[in-house]
Structures are given as C-alpha cells and as structure tokens.
Design brief:
- Helices cover 66% and strands 0% of the residues.
- The chain has 7 helices and no strands.
- The protein is mostly helical and 213 residues long.
- The chain folds into 2 domains: 17-58, Arc Repressor Mutant, subunit A (Orthogonal Bundle), CATH 1.10.10; 64-202, Tetracycline Repressor, domain 2, CATH 1.10.357.
- Helix 6 (159-178) runs antiparallel to helix 7.
Length: 213
C-alpha cells in the first residue's frame, strides 16, 4: 500500500494482549484509509506497530480475520444506533437510526468501503460482509417492516425484498460518498438517505430536506 505515513519508530516491547490487539487493529484501520483490502499485508500492518511480524499470529489467523474484527466492532455500533427503530418503529426513530448509521460510517467509512470493494473478489470477506453483516441488518429491517405492516402503519408489498433493496442502496451510497479519502458532508448524505427511506416506508417527506449541490 505504502501511502499511509509510517509511525515514528518505537522500542519493541511486550504488550498486554488487549493493548497489542488494539495497536494492530488501529494500524490496519490507518492503512485502509489510503489503500484497498487487496493491498493490505500482515507485514505492512506490523511495520506500523511496535511489534514484530510474527506477533500478529498470536492474535489473528490472517488479514481476513483482522478486517472481520474491525467490521464486527463497526457492526455493533451500527446496530446500537438502529436498535430503537428496529424495536419500536415509527418515522421519528427511523430518522434517528439513519442519522446514527451515517455518523458511524463517517467515522469508519474507509474500512467499510474497503470491505464493500473486497466483497466482490474475496470469498471470505464476501461471506462476512454480505452474508453476515449486511444480512443481519436486512433481517432486522424486514422484521420491522412486517411488524409495521401488521399494525397497519405501512403498506409495503414485500418487506423482505424492500429491506434487501434499501440495505444494498445504503451500502453502495455510503461507500461512494463517505468511504473515499475526500468524503461528502455526512449531514447531506444522511438527508438523502432519510428522504429515500421515509418516502419508501412511511410515505413521508417532512422528516428532512435534501440539500442541493
């Protein structure tokens, strides 16, 4: 990869397990800001830590597990932001949930963008990113839509298909607009996404306005 600036040399010392894992995860995250998953190597990750290369394998089996650990943390944050709407529904909680998801993506978009791109050519990343992370959200949104439909709050013909479409739209749009080295304004991205979801699910367009430009 080579674009991310190397940290100043450190004296190589023993680390507690939690500290060592955090240092390795932080190095990988930094490198993904400027490069792609396919260019990420264990050697380069460890060059950006104060540890020797073999130490990596005390904590991670390979680079795939490393990136999946990063994704798992991000998934937890996104699920925390989404859970109130997934549990209770309603347009106001939906708007809050989408604001929260966009905020998480604004912080970690480089990792999610790298995973999104890698999922088209790396089977292990595809399995986790598309069939675990995205699928968990699709399942949650579909359950909420079915509950809203039973309660007579929405009129959507196929909750599962709609959830699938909305999550794929989110993944592609967020990767494009917030996952690049020069991202768009999160507020503008959130406004667009909220407009689409609110109009599609609740037939509402008064929750937000879409900034122009």
């Amino acid at each position: 990869m080579g674009k991310a600036a190397k940290r100043a040399p450190f004296k190589r010392v023993r680390r507690k397990r939690e500290i060592a894992e955090e240092e390795i995860l932080a190095a990988a995250s930094d490198l993904l800001r400027e490069g792609e998953f396919r260019s990420l190597s264990v050697e380069e990750v460890m060059e950006h830590t104060a540890m020797q290369r073999p130490t990596f394998y005390n904590y991670f089996a390979d680079r795939n597990e490393l990136v999946m650990r990063l994704l798992g943390r991000i998934e937890t944050q996104m699920m925390d932001a989404s859970q109130p709407w997934l549990d209770a529904g309603g347009p106001a909680l939906l708007a809050d949930a989408l604001d929260g998801v966009v905020a998480v993506y604004a912080d970690h978009g480089h990792v999610l963008r790298a995973a999104h791109e890698a999922s088209f050519h790396d089977a292990a990343v595809e399995q986790y990113y598309r069939h675990t992370l995205l699928q968990n959200f699709m399942d949650g949104v579909a359950r909420r839509l079915r509950a809203e439909k039973r309660a007579g709050n929405v009129n959507v013909p196929n909750p599962d298909a709609l959830a699938h479409a909305l999550l794929l739209l989110n993944a592609s749009m967020l990767a494009e607009r917030l996952g690049q080295p020069t991202p768009d304004q999160p507020r503008a991205v959130a406004a667009t996404i909220k407009f689409i979801w609110a109009r599609t699910i609740y037939k509402r367009d008064d929750l937000t306005t879409v900034p122009t430009g």
